[in-house]
Amino acid sequence: MMRSLLTLIALVTILFCDIPTLSAQQVTDANADVSVATPAYPQELGPLVLIDGGHQNLHQVDGGFAPFAGLLRADGYRVKGTDGPITTASLTGARILVIANPIHPSNVGNWVNPCPSAFTAPEIAAIKAWVEQGGRLLLIADHMPFAGAAGDLAAAFGFTYANGFANRANPSWPPDRFSRQQQTLLDHPATQGLRPGEHIDSLAAFTGSAVKAPAGAQVIARFSSEHRLLLPDTAWRFNAQTPREPLDDYALGATLNVGKGMVACFTEAAMFTAQLVNGNTQVGFTAPAAPQNKQFILNLVHYLDEVRRYATPKEALQSLLQRHGEALQKQNQDAYNACYDPDARIYLADKGKNVQGVPAFREFWNTLPGNSVAWIYEVTEVHDLPEHLLAIGNVVVNLPAGKQVKKYIQPMLLICTRKEGQLHLWRLYLQPDYTD
After folding, report:
1. How far apart (Å, rounded) are the C-alpha atoms in residues 271 and 22?
2. What is the DSSP letter of 149?
3. Residue 411: is the preceding peptide bond cis (ω within 30°)?
4. How many CA atoms lie within 13 A of 432 on its CB side?
5. Domain annotation for the chain: domains and CATH numbers
6. Is the dihedral of CA 63, 69, 73, 78 positive or negative?
7. Could you give the CA distance from residue 333 to residue 348 in angstroms, rounded to a whole number?
8. What is the rounded CA–CA span in Å between residue 338 and residue 346?
9. How does pLDDT run across 373-432, given as a tens digit for each residue?
């Protein structure tokens, strides 16, 4: 049995190329399908997700985790990479921090024990404080040396990474599958999903480590009695003397509520992205053997983000227009200015007039007769375009006329920009009005 297992692992080493000298054969799948049928947020209007790139990470936002980043962007999230130490300041404004396969400088190109922590004590303290105040951490650490490098950070939340290789004792071709049928995939909000079609029955993983979850954690996927932990001194170097242990109490992944925030620890990174090995072998959420990994990634991120329902582009626009209307009625200059793009313009077709800039808008509103103006947008169509959000409808202006109020209706075309997770009014085209 041991010989067959070692033979299998040797073959996996050649195919999956995780050993540093062969890593050039493992590349990001630039053509991975990262489309999302029903995004959680309109484009670029979701929370900020940071992907760590300051700890010699094997997977970064523009590298091994580019498909992961693309998937989250298609889901409406704003995704940015980090470079440098993690501090309280660097985490400001972020909803989720993703750390995948960090490594200590001493282990770069040298995947041997010991495997020191990739994070300093001040970094760990900053991350823990941020989570306790409401941040969400997704920590992913593969087989050694990555599990060792992430160990101290995980331990700050009660998780214990095993700095080795998790495999089935019965040889099986990767990926390793975790399923409800095998009772290795458990019921969890991330496996249930929010809508029909998001239910997860199986996951595929592509050789990683294992983690012990603390009391109070919710395990998502666990290892079975068939699994073993191999503990070599050097990554991917196995022999008959390599220590091995059972994995009965270990998980593939689990989540834990911490203060106002949340932590998710996983032990395999390839399942969260898309790669090609030896030219055309698909690994990750595009692999034929991993048909539900892509949806699981979205489910997990939605769970961490506490998404309860998906926001539509029309709802996002209506929120902006409501803020605009309230600011106009209350004469709140700062709130009013925040609704506009700095290069905003209004085109008045009936007057052949082009009003440009927020100060000019105030002057324009002040030229309207009456002591009060009720400016209402009636939106009939919304189109979520790659660069802008476009709306078609009417602008309704109620102007005092003696003891009565006269309603003017102007067909409009409204275009909004997206910046820092907010919509801003950019172009407003108004056709000649008519009275109702």
Report:
1. 20
2. H
3. no
4. 4
5. 2-305 (3.40.50.880), 313-435 (3.10.450.50)
6. negative
7. 23
8. 16
9. 566 788 999 998 888 999 999 888 777 666 777 777 878 899 999 887 889 999 988 887
